[in-house]
TrEMBL record, chain A:
Signal peptide segment: none
Keywords: Phosphopantetheine, Phosphoprotein
Annotated InterPro entries: ACP-like_sf (IPR036736), PP-bd_ACP (IPR009081), Ppantetheine_attach_site (IPR006162)
This protein's record includes keyword Phosphoprotein: yes
Gene3D superfamilies hit by this protein: ACP-like
Domain of life: Bacteria
Name of the molecule in the record: Acyl carrier protein
Domain Carrier, residue spans: 4-83
High-level lineage: Bacteria, Pseudomonadati, Bacteroidota, Flavobacteriia, Flavobacteriales
A Pfam family hit: PP-binding
Tagged with keyword Phosphoprotein: yes
TrEMBL record, chain B:
GO cellular component: cytosol
GO biological process, one term: fatty acid biosynthetic process
Keywords for this protein: Transferase
Domain Beta-ketoacyl synthase-like N-terminal residue range list: 42-219
Name the record gives this protein: 3-oxoacyl-ACP synthase
Coiled coil: none
GO MF, any single term: 3-oxoacyl-[acyl-carrier-protein] synthase activity
PANTHER family: 3-OXOACYL-[ACYL-CARRIER-PROTEIN] SYNTHASE, MITOCHONDRIAL (PTHR11712:SF336), POLYKETIDE SYNTHASE-RELATED (PTHR11712)
Taxonomic source organism: Flavobacterium piscinae
Keyword Metal-binding (UniProt): no
């Protein structure tokens, strides 16, 4: 799980060009949207594509995203339970 | 008819054109086949959360437009007009590459949103919350001149009292590769080269952004009036002199009224002959060139315009841009002539105010 979280942080930083954040500073439980990392709706689309492309997970219900994309911790839990690749 | 005063300028280029004295320190671009613009620190002007999505062209455009507005002491222009030859090329390439790499699946929105030609004008308007006229011209090497012409007409017809006008072009790897294959970029073995006495084909590719605030009112910051612009898509070599003569006649000025001619020589032996025609026609007039400092790109004439405006303001022609030794006591009227590969000819007339 730790390796997955590390990999996820690297992928999020790269996909969203979060140049001002390092993997070391990226807390597992930091809120991704709003007050935490400060992601927005365009980033949400990027994360949906990232799940599909890299882990074979298709999010069909947009409401699910709110819970899944809460933090790196919640994303990693969802990926390890649902990944197809 | 209202005059168009150029009251503020901003320029990012291969040279130190941000927070530096006018061409005090220059580096010739004649050693490399592709040269890149010096990037300033953007964090003072653009929020970090926006910067992360912006390609170089967008950042350069926002930075230079902010500089121009600040100098003109203008908070909100009535219109924003930009010109670009290739638009936000880096993101266009990124998006197209993603289509190919991912077999037309998994396309993400960011590079698509940022890849259109009018992204720069749109992002500036969003930042300023400017809901006025917003237009982008994609007309090859006269993109900026077309934008300037539109701005001038907006002011003359009183559609707008102030217009933010700019030209932006960025380099991107695939385009560099394609231009090399087409032979448009100088070969490594032909470098370093002479821009004024070229012996080889091709240009040195550059990039940059320049913005100008045009207003109907003269201000303390005014550089010059933009008196006339002419655009001609195609000219034969033997038609260039007549083109210039007609332009001068239409604007009721004689050859001797021009105090400085700024030419867009880019060191391509095949096409710089057009500039030689104009240079010969003005053989008793001071002449300057600029693409040895900016490199060649579709809106490189913006660097030439920025340079001409600074010459008018400072009343001195830096030695590094002089093409001949002729000097004038005062520089009141400047004519810029540009073309690219024998197409997209333009004449721009500036008068000191």
């Amino acid at each position: 799980m730790e390796a997955l979280k590390q990999e996820l942080k690297e992928k999020i930083i790269a996909a969203l060009n979060l140049e001002h954040i390092s993997v070391e500073e990226f807390d597992d439980n930091e809120t991704l949207f709003g007050d935490g990392i400060g992601l927005d709706s365009i980033d949400a689309l990027e994360l949906i594509v990232l799940l599909d492309k890299d882990y074979g997970i298709k999010l069909t219900d947009p409401k699910e995203g709110k819970t899944i994309f809460q933090s790196v911790e919640t994303m990693a839990n969802y990926i390890s339970a649902n990944r197809t690749k | 008819m209202k005059k168009s005063f150029i009251n503020g300028v901003g320029c990012i280029s291969v040279q130190k054109t941000v927070d530096a004295a006018f061409l005090a320190e220059v580096e010739l671009t004649t050693k490399e086949s592709v040269v890149f613009a010096k990037q300033p620190s953007y964090v003072e002007v653009i929020s970090p959360s926006f910067i992360r999505r912006m390609a170089k062209g967008v950042k350069m455009g926002i930075f230079t437009s902010t500089q121009a507005l600040k100098e003109a002491n203008l908070a909100m222009p009535d219109a924003i007009i930009t010109g670009t030859g290739l638009g936000c090329l880096e993101d266009s390439e990124k998006f197209l590459k993603a289509i190919l790499d991912n077999n037309e699946q998994f396309l993400t929105p960011t590079s698509f949103i940022q890849s259109t030609h009018n992204t720069v004008a749109g992002q500036i308007a969003l930042g300023l919350q400017c809901k006025g006229y917003n237009f982008t011209y994609v007309n090859g090497a006269v993109s900026l001149e077309t934008a300037l012409l539109d701005a001038k007409l907006q002011i003359e017809t009183e559609e707008a009292h102030s217009v933010l006008v700019g030209g932006i072009d960025e380099t991107a790897q695939h385009n560099i590769d394609v231009q090399r294959m087409a032979g448009n970029i100088k070969k490594q073995e032909d470098l370093p080269c002479s821009i004024l006495e070229p012996t080889t084909k091709g240009m040195i590719l550059g990039e940059g952004a320049s913005f100008f605030v045009l207003e109907e009112q003269q201000k303390e910051s005014s550089y010059a009036t933009l008196d006339a612009i002419s655009i001609q898509n195609s000219l034969e070599l033997n038609e260039v002199e007549q083109y210039v003569k007609t332009f001068l006649n239409n604007n009721k000025i004689s050859l001797n009224d021009i105090d400085l001619v700024v030419l867009g020589n880019n060191g391509d032996v095949e096409f710089d002959v057009y500039f030689n025609q104009v240079s010969h026609f003005f053989n008793q007039t001071p002449q300057a060139y600029f693409k040895h400092l900016s490199g060649e790109f579709y809106t490189a004439s913006g660097f030439g315009l920025w340079m001409a405006l600074n010459i008018l303001k400072e009343q001195t022609v830096p030695a590094c841009v002089k093409m001949n030794s002729i000097e004038r006591e005062m520089y009141q009227t400047v004519l810029l002539y540009n073309q690219y590969r024998g197409k997209d000819h333009s004449l721009t007339l500036l008068k000191k105010c």
